[in-house]
Write a structure and sequence with these properties.
about 120 residues; five-stranded antiparallel sheet; 2 helices; rod-shaped
Length: about 120
């Protein structure tokens, strides 16, 4: 003889729920990286800084339908840098090389026009 049982009662559920999310951003450099200052490299000098902190924020007014993601780096001297102000070693070497060749070409041009400059003619050691 099978037993049949029918449950009765009620369940009360109280509480609240929340949504938690994290955004992942790709940054050019990370904490501890040595990077070079773009402006100094474009003027022919190497100047490096070490990244101490990376912050990602947004610029613009989100109420107008969007905002731009901005990456800000802080170096060990607590100077704040935008991502576009810093370059890698290879980029810095290319900028310094470009500057040096431009200065050399301008100096050669002035020498060819008869300016009195202390530069060596082509082919001299």
């Amino acid at each position: 003889m099978p037993l049949e049982y029918e449950a009765s009662g009620r369940v009360r559920v109280n509480g609240c729920a929340g949504i938690s999310y994290a955004r992942n951003y790709l940054t050019e450099y990370s904490v501890g990286d040595r990077v070079w200052v773009r402006k100094k490299a474009s003027l022919g000098r190497f100047e490096s800084v070490v990244i101490k902190r990376v912050r990602v924020g947004s610029a613009g007014n989100p109420s107008y339908g969007g905002s731009e993601t901005v990456v800000v780096y802080t170096d060990t001297f607590n100077r704040v840098w935008m991502e576009r102000e810093l370059v890698s070693l290879q980029e810095a070497e290319a900028l310094v090389s470009s500057y040096n060749s431009m200065v050399s070409a301008k100096t050669r041009e002035m020498y060819d026009r008869g300016a009195c400059l202390p530069i060596k003619p082509e082919g001299c050691a």
